[in-house]
Design goal:
The protein has twelve helices and nine strands. By secondary structure, it is α/β, with parallel strands linked by helices. It binds ligand NPW and adenosine-5'-diphosphate.
């Protein structure tokens, strides 16, 4: 039985990249994002919004036309031309069965980059094709599909299934749920428990992907030097997400854009501690 270490706000604060006076947008980190689809364009908007609110030098969004238009309407800060990136966020709001050729090509190019890559939802079939360090962000149903189990089996012992998936797949696993379990092939085991159940709402996981993508892009060099850093960044994202949900909720229902809107204040409070 693995022991999972609780990830606290004090732990999380150590994993926020503070911009320095000499920084520019490129040196802070560029997150490449391929998410969303005609069927689920909102997932792209939520992920980009959350990434920008977490703090990153640039979000380079390279998804389909419809989500691109919606992302730009909501966030003209996003750059939609190809170019340099330091980490990738792939798969939220995509359906592997509906993927067209152009999307497959863009995903393949991203996966061949050798960069740290966060893979969510409709990108999870691509785990084995990534050439860089990988972090996956499944919910119980998605992890069940990936490891060939049932959702009920995963739900009955999520911590153990997160460990098993990390060991079998050789990637860092962030398993979503009321508690967020993070397991890495190097034996790192972390749990984050700051999220209120009000966060169980459609799109919350897409926002988590954006928060995590931004943290990875702003720590790309650290991850290249030590892929074990991905687990600590994953747990930090879960803590930020949970604390932001607590603010957006204030004890009542929340909407995901309000969770993203709360992220900058959560981070400001963390770094002030
Ligand atoms: N605004 C947008 O654009 C949004 C877009 N979105 C995008 O939609 C796409 C489809 O994602 P999806 O999770 O809805 O369906 P899918 O992967 O087929 O899983 C279904 C299976 O998994 C289970 N299951 C589901 N959730 C679970 C959970 N939290 N915890 C535990 N189990 C859970 C469920 O089990 P059941 O309850 O049926 O037994 C069923 O077996 C994806 O690309 C996503 O990014 C969403 O993010 C919403 C907002
Ligand atoms: N009962 C719960 N309590 C707290 N957080 C939850 C609960 N259920 C889900 N969450 C969180 O909400 C998010 C849901 O993500 P996900 O299942 O991928 O939904 P979606 O695909 O709709 O974005 C995850 O970050 C998860 O940890």
């Amino acid at each position: 039985m693995s022991t999972f270490t609780d990830w606290t706000p004090e732990d999380a604060r150590e994993h926020i990249a503070m911009p320095r006076a000499q920084d520019d947008k490129y040196s802070r980190g560029v997150l490449g994002v391929i998410t969303g689809s005609d069927a689920y364009p909102g997932a792209a908007v939520l992920g980009v919004e959350a990434a920008l609110r977490t703090g990153v030098g640039m979000v380079r969004y390279l998804g389909d036309d419809r989500p691109t238009q919606l992302v730009l309407q909501r966030r003209p800060e996003a750059v939609t031309a190809p170019g340099r990136v330091q980490a990738w966020l792939l798969g939220s709001g995509m359906d592997a069965a509906q993927r067209d050729e152009a999307t497959s090509r863009r995903l393949a190019a991203a996966l061949a980059d050798g960069l740290p890559t966060v893979i969510d939802a409709g990108g999870l079939d691509l785990i084995g094709r990534a050439s860089g360090p990988v972090l996956i962000t499944p919910h119980f149903g998605e992890l069940a599909r990936v490891v060939g189990a049932t959702k009920d089996q995963v739900a009955s012992n999520p911590a153990a299934w997160a460990v098993r998936a990390a060991e079998e797949l050789g990637v860092t696993v962030l398993l979503k749920g009321h508690q967020t379990f993070v397991a890495a092939p190097d034996g790192t085991r972390i749990v984050a428990s700051s999220a209120p159940p009000w966060l169980a709402t459609a799109g919350a996981g897409d926002a988590l992907g954006g928060i995590l993508g931004a943290l990875v892009a702003t720590h790309s060099a650290e991850v290249a030097a030590d892929p074990g850093a991905l687990a600590r960044l994953a747990a930090t994202a879960a803590v930020i997400h949970g604390l932001a949900a607590g603010r957006a909720s204030a004890g009542g229902p929340l909407v995901v854009l309000d969770v993203a809107a709360a992220v900058p204040r959560v981070i400001a409070d963390l770094v002030r501690r």
